[in-house]
Specification:
- It is built from two helices and no strands.
- The chain is an all-alpha fold and 55 residues long.
Amino acid sequence: MNKAENKGVYTCNEYREEMILLSLQKKLSSGGLTPEEKKALLREITEVEKQMGID
């Protein structure tokens, strides 16, 4: 079932994806990251957003 077929049903997987994305964004905004860490977080955020269909 894709997101378009979901028709308003909010699943555990969607909640999980949102919490992962939120956590990654919070880490990114916390500061004190090396350029490598920032790049890795941005890569992870992009991957999660693609999985969620919000890329």
